[in-house]
Write a structure and sequence with these properties.
Length: 331
């Protein structure tokens, strides 16, 4: 009997891989819907017999969070949720684990593009390029743009040394930073450290001239950077965040920028996106992007290919290829 897979969103770039998968299973797409409608259809048995679900960030606008309520409403046949994206904070993993449903994310495919975005923001903040661009468009050649800084002699602190953090490290090595330090939940092997120095979080705050944020969003990291942690940082510190917005208390960040404690901030993610704190929009020392880190054709294709591979691997073996860390060893 042909296995059935439910797609809550579309495939846009990995069309060849999608066509190949469609030859091996029965794919059904959910069109325009709402959370209420989807839950109702689940309870009525419309999706009975489906074994896996494909979801993306835009699924949130259709059916809301993948929380306990939604998990409990899914048919008993569902055994895998395959998510498009490295971050999966829209999925509450615990109830799915309890129900025996595997959750996969995209691991590695987005590292290079996200890290390049991080480096762009880092250099832009060091050199005040964002402020200069604003000044130029306002009809001022240089205006009141302050002198920037070179990376030479500076300490870069990387918060989170997973795939993206390590890619940031590799990209910036030729730039002349005096030292690269990092904080992680646990120290990496010497091979993965790549010459960086492991420090405590407080040591990173105290030593870093530039802080690159690359941690996942969870209960432990929400508002990890707040008024207290900012007070421990160097005067004139630069903060770059391409991870998740709620890792930083945005108002505390605005206050730090306004006081000069933080000289510049480079952000691709926001606490309440797509809404942005007006204090960030008003401050020329905030270099802002609209969650643009993976916004390339090549990266989108690689990420879609990775999700389709998770689905196909699950259909073949009963296990997804890249299960989320919370579920390691549980399936």
């Amino acid at each position: 009997m042909t296995q059935k897979v439910l797609f809550l969103d579309e495939i846009h770039d990995a069309t060849k891989d999608y066509a190949a998968l469609a030859q091996k299973c029965d794919i059904q797409h959910v069109g325009t819907t709402s959370r209420e409608q989807f839950l109702k259809e689940c309870k009525e048995g419309k999706y009975d017999g489906f074994v896996a679900i494909y979801r993306t960030f835009t699924t949130l606008g259709k059916v809301g969070r993948f929380d306990k309520e939604l998990c409990d409403a899914l048919p008993a046949s569902i055994k895998a949720v395959c998510h498009y994206g490295a971050g999966y904070d829209q999925v509450d993993v615990a109830p799915f684990t309890e129900r025996g449903i595997q959750v996969s994310n995209v691991q590695g495919a987005a590292d290079a593009a996200t890290a390049l975005t991080n480096v762009y923001l880092m250099l832009g903040c060091l050199r005040n390029f964002g402020h200069a661009a604003i000044s130029l468009r306002q009809g001022n050649w240089i205006g009141d743009v302050p002198l920037g800084h070179d990376p030479d002699g500076k300490v870069l602190g990387i918060m989170g040394m997973g795939g993206i953090g390590r890619q940031v490290r590799d990209y910036v090595k030729p730039f002349g930073f005096e030292k690269i330090i990092y904080y992680n939940r646990s120290r990496l092997s010497p091979e993965l450290e790549g010459g960086c120095h492991y420090v405590t979080l407080d040591e990173l705050y105290a030593q870093a001239d530039v802080i690159s944020v690359n941690v996942p969003l969870n209960a432990a990291t929400r508002h990890m950077i707040n008024s207290e942690s900012i007070s421990k940082m160097k005067d004139g510190v630069i903060i770059v965040n391409t991870a998740r917005g709620p890792v930083i208390d945005e108002q505390a960040l605005v206050d730090g920028l306004n006081s000069g404690k933080i000289s510049s901030a480079g952000l691709d993610v926001y606490e309440h996106e797509p809404k942005i704190n007006p204090g960030l929009l008003k401050n020329p020392q905030a270099l802002l992007l609209p969650h643009f880190g993976t916004f390339t054709i090549e990266t989108h294709r690689k990420m879609e290919e990775a999700v389709l591979n998770n689905i196909e691997t699950f259909l073949k073996t009963g296990k997804v290829a890249t299960i989320v860390p919370e579920q390691n060893g549980k399936f």
